[in-house]
Design a protein that fits this description.
Blueprint (H helix, E strand, L loop, with lengths): L2 H35 L6 H25 L11 H28 L6 H21 L49 E5 L3 H13 L3 E5 L2 H8 L6 E4 L8 H10 L8 E5 L4 H10 L3 E4 L4 H20 L3 E7 L5 H17 L5 E6 L9 H5 L9 E6 L22 H16 L3 E7 L10 H22 L11 E4 L2 H28 L3
Parallel strand pairs: 1-2, 1-3, 3-4, 4-5, 6-7, 6-8, 8-9, 9-10
Amino acid sequence: MSETEAKTFRDKLAQIRHDLKSPVGHILGYSEMIEEEFEDDPWPEFQDDLNNINNSGHALVELIEDLLGPSKRSVEEIDFVTTQYQLRQQLNHITGYCEMLHELAEDEDRTEILPDLDRIIEASRSFTNIVDQKIRPVTFEGLDQQVNTDDIKPKSDASLPNRSDDTDSEDSHLPINYLGEGGNLLVVDDNPTNCDLLERRLSRQGYKSTSVTSGKKALELLDNDQFDLILLDLLMPEMDGIEVLQRLKANSRWRNIPVIILSALDDMEMIVKCVLLGAEDYIFKPFNPVLLKARIAANLEKFRLRRQQVPKLKIFISSPGDVIPERKIIRRLINELNEELADRVFLTPIFWEDEPLLASDTFQAQIYPARESDIYIGIFWSRLGSPLPENIKREDGSRYLSGSEYEFEDAMVGFQENGKPDILVYKKMAEPMVGLNDKDVIMSRLEQNERLAVFVKHWFMTEDGESYIGAFHGCQSEEQFVDMVSTHLRKLVLKQLDVVSVWFARFL
């Protein structure tokens, strides 16, 4: 056998091992989930058979390595009849125990575990179909494409439910400053069951996660959200894990995000390639959940420590509740700058609200002081925000009309006394739409508009009332707002970095 033929054989065999290990990972993962259900409420009668399922799953992994492992050098070294028989035997054990446990759970009204038992049975059937189709001599006569286990339908009418949660909202993940207590993880795997298992496992370990089933979707998601770590599968259609990894490390915004490869491929050349391309770790499927947790925690800790070594800038975002889209834009722009300037600075956004809230003395006292931030951003449209309680007053005894006014003036005091924060203020120039059916609503909107007009005139209008001064910027469209904030924020951040560099230089 020539070297080319030998490599082709090794690649085909590695592909088959990968395809077989995928459903085995599902079997072990769901059996471990069921096991955890009974940690606080043991059920010995059930536990014995569950242990048998788990043991058979691990036996399958050993059989795959023994019968189809890297030690096999040619087709002649593979006993296809024996391989099929031994693999099927373990699968029969798994499905048999699962069916008995299914009946027992129904009899005892423990219906919460039935879905995971069904998933184990379905994974077993998928494994059987792969064995039937691929453990044959003909497989090695021209295998030129990977097996997609999702295309091999089990002989069952049951289908997996869609367990994906709505994770697209801006508040669906933990902030980056909580890395020690959690983190926002991105799972990239073309197999939905793999995604489901990982998301559930990560949730139990205290992480927030979002999963996508293609490299393209992963890159699209990264354009709009920030993640603290990526779990990446290698074998995917259209865009494989290697290409995704290359694109991540070539992009200034994403290159510092830790990437852990999760793959059933046990090719040493592939492992080395991933590491050289910038992957932080490589874990084989089916993975040990304890090991996975430890590896994730270690890489998040390194990520956190790198962030601690760069200067930090606090960006205070104050705004009433009618500019929620603009707040989301600012959050995204800050994320982008954090990723782009990861080696130089870390921007900490201070959002005093994620949804509109009424201001109160207790609530207001918990807000990080605007004057102690490095950059203040105010956004207005038709109103200043919620009125403050009567007991919160200026030194001269006058009342603040709103929380936004209170925070803006606090930032102004800081700038006058310490030269910071830098102040940016934006206002939508479009007129708010008001329905004509509710007189009280109309009068309230008019009052809010008048208060805002007085505020803007006081702080940002020239004496002739014809033009704006200072850091006030009107915007006509979302695109204009994005361009202005991005330009202004970048300019101020770079200015702050220059100041920090000068300060550090004194001690070098």
